[in-house]
Amino acid sequence: MKHAVKITLFLVALFLATQFIGLIITSRYVDVGQTVETGELTWKSLPGIGGVDIERPDIDPAKSFLYILGAIVIGTIIILILVKWKKISLWKLWFFVAVALCLHVAFSAFISANISIFLAIILALVKVYRPNIFVHNFTELFIYSGLAVIFVPVMNLFAAFALMILLSLYDMYAVWKSKHMIHMAKFQTKSGVFAGLLMPYKLKLPKKPKVKGKLVKVKTAILGGGDLGFPLIFAGVVFKSVGLYKAMIIPVFAAIALLMLLLLGKKNKFYPAMPFISAGCFVGYLVILLSSLL
Q1: pLDDT value of position 20
Q2: pLDDT attached to residue 107
Q3: Under 8 Å between Cβ of 53 and 263
Q4: pLDDT at res. 203
């Protein structure tokens, strides 16, 4: 078992919560009135910032996965450069902007844009510059909803499957072969700013943080942001054709696959989670198809 049972269950529960919250937020961006009037699924516009509109990328849905993969490659290269040059301040600034934007999009599904951007900026500032485990994991529940709202409308099912398959292959290469994913995870953890869930084995630090001049390290379980965001995007694309409640079947099977990985994995060893989560997503989609035949 990779982690203690309690830690494992917490990670899986937070994973499920992230997926369900994301699907609900994505569904709230559907323009029901226009959809009923035209008979075609219509999406609400994204909330603006200071009078400046945020636009979804204007791309061919069938080729959308290529643009997303390209953005991932460029982002990875930038992070690796920051790792090499140890530019933690630049990484924090970049992360702050991304977090604030995604939270703003997510919160705007429930509250006005003016209140949403204020709340998003405050939480992003705390998350990046005054981090604590509670704010960190709370914001993680919503960040990937923002990404889903941006990308789900511009993708089709083919692109969603292609993205999950290619990302799974990339994840295996990045963890088992090149190992640069491990280096990036360690850099993010060291900087105090990590994209993904963090679950420390102890919430309270020892009264004496140093023993014989050495810092006492608190063991922490992590689940990367991509392992949260991409299955949500996949489920969101499926939601467009089967509806909200059926689409929620996918996170359940993805969570089961994640649970199996954590139960069968070995301690102190890194594993690519995407192949397992993708398999769970595909099984969930198969179950949806089979249920429609009954």
Answers
A1: 98
A2: 97
A3: no
A4: 67
Q: Where are the alpha helices (DSSP H) in 56-112?
A: 64-85, 88-107
What's the pLDDT at 214? 47
What is the domain range of residue 123? 5-27+77-204+211-293
**What is the token pair recorded at 28?**
């709230």
**Burial of 208 by CB count in 10 Å (0-12 exposed, 13-18 middle, 19+ buried)?**
exposed
CA–chain centroid gap for 143, Å, is 7
What is the rounded distance in angstroms from the CA atom of residue 41 to the CA atom of residue 153?
Answer: 9
Q: Is 294 helix (H, G, I), strand (E, B) or coil?
A: coil
In a domain, 161, yes or no: yes
Per-residue CA distances from 63 to 229, 241, 276 (Å): 19, 19, 24
E strands, the chain, in order: 196-200, 210-211, 214-215, 220-224
In a domain, 38, yes or no: no
What is the tally of structural domains in the chain? Answer: 1
Of 154, 147, 143, 145, residue with least CA distance to 66: 154
Contact 146, 103 (CB under 8 A): yes
pLDDT value for 199: 86
Spans of the chain below 70 pLDDT: 203-218
Q: Report the pLDDT value the prediction gives residue 277, as an integer from 0 to 100.
A: 98
- Single-letter residue type at 28: R
| Coil, strand or helix at 16 | helix
